[in-house]
């Protein structure tokens, strides 16, 4: 692949507000280089699906622009559609038809006929280890087989860019691992450009050459996973307290821990404290002593190399698990409320890192280093 080729996907300043006032996208910028896998990583409700809908011409932004495979999504949606494959969150396969019938139908929709259609269907069945199941109705397939068929359906017309929306959600660990291998091959050996959305940190880490972390409708940081983790120099120390700290306690502890030698950053959030230290093991005794002096009891402590979880915490200002829980609560509210508009993280764009309610943080070094 030439380094001078135009980006396969480019989005600039996409804004999208849904009826009811939910700001799903709040200035989304995104670039995917040809032949690479970009992982759009973010918690539930961050705006990943809305981004994919706009890039695949299924929704229009309120403002901003985007091109896919060199075609403008608003001016030439038909050209974009011919150049892309889309694997949506929910399977598009007909459960009553067989795997082979589904592939043939999809091929016909893309203009394939006769021997070329048969060849392509057989090729994809073989490619995705579905040959033995080719003549069975899809409703009898396992979750992993269905997902592989979904990807095969998205590839029938040999697209340049493949969109995979949450490709492994709902799969068991074994099927997830198999799907990761498939996606790795598609990008590596077949040179496809892939934009995949995921809310699994591990999936982004494992599959994506570059990760764009999306939070509240915009990208908060983008880069190669190892580089992003490497920028957070030092170790991540996580402490769990027996009792949650109130507001006064949080401020006190944040200040006390942040002032210890070798400690770069401390973030206190309820029962959990996250510290970034030059040497986590060396800092641990002083951290525990400072907490003991403050009358705070520690229930558990761990030291680890920074993970994408820590990258998210650094740039989005809240823990990934908390953001996920907030998104899940939102989805639950929505289900309770029937057709009520979704609200949640997307309703509060632009909250500065570390300033969310219930969180105190102090950075002693300024910036991410
Ligand atoms: N049709 C809609 N009407 C109103 N609000 C919506 C609609 N679709 C999405 N939203 C809201 O827009 C925001 C972004 O949603 P989006 O589905 O793009 O996020 P996501 O990151 O893909 O999350 P998920 O992983 O749960 O699909 C959320 O706050 C959501 O509640």
UniProtKB/TrEMBL annotation:
Supply the PANTHER family for this chain.
Answer: ABC TRANSPORTER ATP-BINDING PROTEIN, DOXORUBICIN RESISTANCE ATP-BINDING PROTEIN DRRA
Protein name as it appears in the record: ABC-type xenobiotic transporter
PROSITE patterns named among the record's database cross-references: ABC_TRANSPORTER_1, ABC_TRANSPORTER_2
Q: Enumerate composition-biased segments (Polar residues).
A: 360-369
Query: Which stretches are tagged as biased composition: Low complexity?
Result: 337-354
* The species this protein was found in: Streptomyces naganishii JCM 4654
Q: Which family does it belong to?
A: Belongs to the ABC transporter superfamily. Drug exporter-1 (DrugE1) (TC 3.A.1.105) family.
Q: Which GO terms describe its biological process?
A: daunorubicin transport; doxorubicin transport; response to antibiotic
- Keyword Metal-binding attributed: no
Q: Name one Pfam family in it.
A: ABC_tran
Q: Which Gene3D superfamilies match?
A: P-loop containing nucleotide triphosphate hydrolases (3.40.50.300)
Q: Any idea where the ABC transporter domain is?
A: 9-241
Task: Spell out the residue ranges making up region: Disordered.
Answer: 324-369
Q: Which InterPro entries match?
A: AAA+_ATPase, ABC_transporter-like_ATP-bd, ABC_transporter-like_CS, ABC_transporter_ATP-binding, DrrA, DrrA1/2-like_C, P-loop_NTPase
The Gene Ontology terms for molecular function here are:
ABC-type xenobiotic transporter activity; ATP binding; ATP hydrolysis activity
Topology in the lipid bilayer is annotated as:
Peripheral membrane protein
Q: What class of enzyme is it?
A: translocase
Q: Which SMART domains match?
A: AAA (SM00382)
Might you report a single GO cellular component term?
A: plasma membrane
What NCBIfam families does its record include? drrA
What keywords would UniProt list here?
Answer: Antibiotic resistance, ATP-binding, Cell membrane, Membrane, Nucleotide-binding, Translocase, Transport
- Where does the record say this protein resides? Cell membrane
Q: What is its EC number?
A: 7.6.2.2
């Amino acid at each position: 692949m030439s380094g001078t080729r135009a980006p396969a996907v480019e989005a600039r300043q996409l804004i999208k507000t849904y009826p009811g006032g939910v700001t799903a996208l709040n200035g989304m910028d995104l670039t995917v280089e040809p032949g690479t896998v970009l992982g759009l990583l973010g918690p539930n409700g961050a705006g990943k699906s809305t981004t994919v809908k706009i890039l695949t011409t299924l929704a229009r932004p309120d403002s901003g622009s985007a091109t896919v495979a060199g075609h403008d999504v608003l001016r030439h949606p038909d050209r974009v559609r011919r150049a892309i494959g889309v694997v949506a969150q929910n399977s598009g396969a007909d459960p009553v038809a067989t795997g082979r019938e589904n592939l043939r139908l999809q091929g016909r929709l893309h203009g394939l006929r006769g021997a070329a259609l048969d060849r392509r269907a057989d090729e994809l069945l073989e490619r995705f280890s579905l040959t033995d199941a080719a003549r069975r109705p899809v409703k009898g397939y396992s979750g992993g087989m269905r997902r592989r068929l979904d990807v095969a359906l998205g590839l029938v017309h040999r697209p340049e860019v493949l969109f995979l929306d949450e490709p492994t959600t709902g799969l068991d660990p074994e099927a997830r691992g198999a799907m990761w291998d498939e996606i790795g091959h598609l990008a590596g050996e077949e040179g496809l450009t892939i934009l995949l959305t995921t809310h699994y940190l591990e999936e982004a880490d494992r599959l994506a050459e570059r990760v764009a972390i999306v939070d509240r409708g915009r990208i908060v940081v983008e880069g190669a996973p190892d580089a992003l983790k490497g920028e957070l120099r030092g170790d991540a120390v996580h402490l769990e307290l027996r009792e949650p700290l109130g507001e006064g306690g949080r401020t006190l502890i944040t200040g006390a821990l942040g002032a210890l030698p070798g400690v770069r950053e401390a973030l206190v959030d309820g029962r959990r404290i996250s510290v970034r230290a030059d040497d986590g093991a060396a800092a641990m005794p002083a951290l525990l002593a400072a907490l003991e002096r403050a009358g705070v009891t520690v229930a558990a402590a761990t030291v680890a190399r920074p993970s994408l979880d820590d990258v998210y915490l650094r740039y989005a200002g809240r823990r990934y698990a908390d953001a996920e829980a907030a998104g899940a609560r939102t989805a639950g509210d929505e289900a309770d409320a029937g057709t009520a508009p979704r609200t949640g993280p997307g309703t509060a764009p632009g909250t500065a890192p570390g300033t969310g309610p219930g969180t105190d943080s102090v950075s002693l070094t300024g910036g991410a280093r």
